[in-house]
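Today's session is about reading a structure prediction critically. Students often jump straight to the picture, but the first step is always the sequence itself: look for stretches that repeat, for charged clusters, for runs of hydrophobic residues. Only then move on to the predicted structure, which in these notes is written as discrete structure tokens rather than atom positions. Here is the chain we will use throughout the hour.
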Amino acid sequence: MAAAMVVSAAGETPTIDEPVYVGTAADYLHEHRLAYNPEHPPLGKLVIAAGVAAAGPRFDASFTGDQGRLGRHLLYESGNDPWRLMLWARLPVIALTLLFALAAFAFARELAGAAGGLTALVLYSFSPDLLAHGSLATLDAPAAGFALTSAWLLWRARRRPGVYAPLAGAAAGAAAATKMSALPVLPVVSALVLVSVWASRRPGPGRAARVRTLAAGAGWASVACAAATAVVWASYLAVDPRLRRSYRAPAPALHGARAALVDALPFPRAYRDGMRMQFGLENLPWQGFLFGHVYTGARWYYLPVALLVKTPLGALALWGAGAVALVAVRRLRPAAPYVLAPPAVLLAAAMHSARDFGTRYALFLPMFLAVAAGALGALRGLLGRRERRAAGALAALAAFAAVSSVRAFPYYLPYSNEAFGGPARTHLRLHDANVDWGQDLGRLATRLRTRYPRERVWLVYKGSGVPSFYGIRAADPRAAPPERVRGLLAVSDSAAAKARGRLAALIASSRPIDEVGHSITLYRR
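Below is the predicted structure for this chain, in token form.
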């Protein structure tokens, strides 16, 4: 997994969100202020900042543009090498993703022994979504991994709540300090602390013993919540001990339940302002794309369908079998709330988002359900004569998932499983971070230089990279009369998916001749 992620990280140009996070991380290091990207908490960007600090880029303290321009200025206009800087920024996220793999392994091993741990580790390590997003300087993998770690520590709290409940709260706080979409996990953590304390004490039938146990559980739940709150505050104080409101973006006013929720949070003012901005973003008319249909708004079933497309078939089978086993098998049932409740709550929240942009919003599912699949190892000794056959089926499904993932190397972002045609056909069904997030601009430059030298190039690129930096000399075909657009037309698949008007007419009257990374299509005109 480490090798695959490092190779991917070294070969991909900045995706759409990465320059914002990398530029913000550099600003944290040099200016110690919360001026940029206030809609996301700082912890994930502090992780990225560790790599940025190691790279030691030139930083222009006089820059006054917005957060999108900040990242582009740092990468392309300040004398830095964007290849080197992006690789260093991605390495801390890669390291965290690998550590979370060990958490998944340890969790499943405690549930089902070494065979269960190995099954979970195989599914985690070969998950195309985790390989893709775990190798980027973004926030999705760290937030999901902290939530997984919290659930594992809560399971361990059944034996020693005094040790593991505060640690579980701190891990949940780290998730919330990385992405605000992880906030729904906090009440789940509080409830699971109560379950763990009850399991550790096993009160007798007397009412007094039960009341004492519930009181102890409530006390440890309060400690876990305090630990989570402390981590959120610490992440902001680490950037700016004075907590100055130096961001220019206005925080929109909220009303009703949303306003009450935000005002009740015991977090810094900057966090609550970021929540207001997130709710403001939810009110915008975002466009989605699903199975060839462009629409405005969100569809509640988008994430389940996208996950069905982008998860290896063997993993889907093992996820489902593991989830059923956790609920149906008596010896596994105590673990079901720890493995299934956090991702269920997070998925329900994500399905109500207004932005249908990719499975990265549900990156916690491959992590938690790898553990659920690992729980199948606990069925050993329960299946009688069918045990050997079941073990063979489990191994075959895990191997099928791994082989499907390996075949996609190193193009993990546009992965889809064999039932939907593989990575080359993902763009027909999904868009944005599911397929084309701007990651293949450098590969496009290499392809044009080696196969199509001295040809006239027209480019519609969806991403944050600067084509001219990579040696691409191209014009925008939408700004020229159609009869003048001759030669090579290169179009990002996300732009093609939602093409209308002139661009749609240009694509319809062109002949596809090549593709780059399953995310950019080349047409002959």
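Discussion point for the tutorial: The CA atoms of residues 119 and 374 lie 5 Å apart.
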